[in-house]
Amino acid sequence: MKRWRIPGLVDRIDVSDPLEISQIVADPRADREFHTPTALLNWVLLKRALSALSFAGKRFPTMTSRAVHARSTERDDLWNKLQARIPAIRPGPDELEPLAKWVAGSGDETEVGIVTQQLLGSLFSDNFRATPESWRAAQILVAAPRLSNIPKLLWWTLS
């Protein structure tokens, strides 16, 4: 775990070890309660992350406090929905063939990204359709928190 702290500007902790991540997730003090910004860069990153991790003005369940009752209800509903789909997923749908080819060393990264996004997205929404545009959006979403280009980050935040 690495921590960078400049009071009033940034307070950042990078965690990549799976054991440390599990410990943080289990710690009841680590929650998604967002208060008045105390570090400018944290506030800019948080504003950007919350806008990306919301839909129709509602934060994704992973971005709401553990104390919010709706979060636990949504989590339980999602768990039940995914459990009901296990029998259909277990044998391996035909859609996995492009993934198998990519793992074997052939195939295009964009193609496998769209296929993966479709497979995972359809677990959560029957109407989900992965497209090249949705795949590019996912790549931007993944890259944004790792962005070290401050002017570009500020432009993304303000636009």
What integer is the average pLDDT? 81
Tertiary shape:
globular
Could you say how many structural domains there are in total? 2
End-to-end Cα distance, whole Å, is: 32 Å
Strand content: 5-15%
Order of helices and strands: EEHHEEHHHHH
Spans of 5+ residues with little confidence (pLDDT < 50)?
none
User: Order of strands across the widest beta sheet?
Assistant: 1-2
Q: Approximately how much helix is present in the residues?
A: 40-55%
Please count the beta strands (DSSP E, at least 2 residues each).
Answer: 4
Radius of gyration: 19 Å
Biggest beta sheet summary: 2 strands, antiparallel
Helix-and-strand structural type: mainly alpha
- What is the tally of helical segments? 7
Describe this structure in words.
Helix 2 crosses helix 7. It is globular and about 55 Å long. It has helices at 18-26, 40-52, 69-89, 97-103, 109-124, 132-143, 150-158; strands at residues 2-6, 10-14, 54-55, 58-59. The protein has 159 residues and is mostly helical. The longest helix is centred in the middle third of the chain and has 21 residues, at 69-89. The strands form two sheets. Strands 1-2 form a two-stranded antiparallel ribbon. It has a two-stranded antiparallel sheet with strand order 3-4.
